[in-house]
Amino acid sequence: MINYFKSKNIKLTKQRKLVFETISKLEEANLKDIQKICGKEMDNSTIYRIIDLFLKKGMINKNIDNSNNLVYMINKEEHKHYIYCVECHNKEVIDICPIDSIKNTGYKLLSHQIRIDGICSDCQKK
Prior knowledge:
Blueprint: H1 2-7, H2 14-26, E1 29-30, H3 31-38, H4 44-56, E2 60-64, E3 70-74, E4 81-85, E5 91-94, E6 116-118, H5 121-125
Parallel strand pairs: 4-6
Antiparallel strand pairs: 1-3, 2-3, 4-5
Helix pairs in contact: 2-4
């Protein structure tokens, strides 16, 4: 883990390690879960700053879960988007990212979120 943090030019502190491990363990961690686990060791403003740093460095991604809650997950260098079934709450990976086609905007993109809802073929048959 220390080499990963060094590669991102970030000092590995006890608090950063705890937040990173929490997000990693939960796979899709919402802010309440992170606060519940890490709040004993640090205040909320520290948690927010660490999450913001991780987002800026591309270490984590944010997305929206089936309940429309913001969740954080470890960036495994696999940029993915999902389509969610509003009936059975299944999610499937979408093989394309429409944002990748945006060029020459003059912006340095830090992150983006795309939420696509639908009804899967199994639920349509019901």
